[in-house]
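Audit log entry. Action: structure prediction of a protein-small molecule complex. Ligand: flavin mononucleotide. The ligand was supplied as SMILES and no pocket hint was given, so placement is left entirely to the predictor. Protonation state taken as written. Sequence taken verbatim from the request; no trimming, no tag removal. Recorded inputs:
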Amino acid sequence: MNTDGSLIDTIKNRRNTKRFQLKDVNRSDIEMLLESAIWAPNHRNTEPWRFYVVEKGSSLRVEIAKEMIDLREEKSEKKLDDRQKKSIYDQMSEAPCLIFVFSLLSENEEIAEENYAATCCAIQNIQLTATSLGLGVGWSTGNVAKIRNMNQILGTDEDLKIAGVLTVGYPEALVPKTRKDYETVTKWL
Ligand SMILES: Cc1cc2nc3c(=O)[nH]c(=O)nc-3n(C[C@H](O)[C@H](O)[C@H](O)COP(=O)(O)O)c2cc1C
């Protein structure tokens, strides 16, 4: 395989990122990520993705943190103490740029599935473009992606499925990852 510092290296160097530097991300870089996202393949040309950028300092972050606290309390069936609540507020306010990514739902299950697949391709475009810019992306389908009232908070009445919440920033440290050899998951027939 040719590894001359091009696409294959960017693919391999992309890492899911959880720890970020405090340095802010330029809006023009976020715009470039979104521009790369919308060039993902999409069956029937439905362009079935929606992006909500919640920048650092946005007042929506307080609402999102409140919903995350409610969700945690509901799951554990007990109230969080002030220290735990503060940690969620701090985490939400300190996170670099957040991009909530959704796919369009459809009454047709096959179309909804294709829309989700296309949206995941868009996310991969974002991740690879970010890697090429020296940025890191954390893809979460955890608590932050599960909060209630998401439509209300983001101000949309579209029928959407969350594909992930992406945290975009300058990576502090990258955790090395390995993969099994592709031969272990491939049959040549
Ligand atoms: C659909 C999807 C959902 C994910 N959700 C989470 C998540 O909720 N939390 C998390 O830490 N990582 C999440 N990840 C990232 C994976 O954990 C990560 O890709 C995996 O550990 C491999 O590491 P790498 O991406 O650095 O190669 C998700 C990835 C995908 C594709």
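Audit: result stored. The domain at 7-185 is CATH 3.40.109.10 (NADH Oxidase). The pocket of flavin mononucleotide is lined by residues 15-16, 139-142, 164, 177 (CB under 6 Å).
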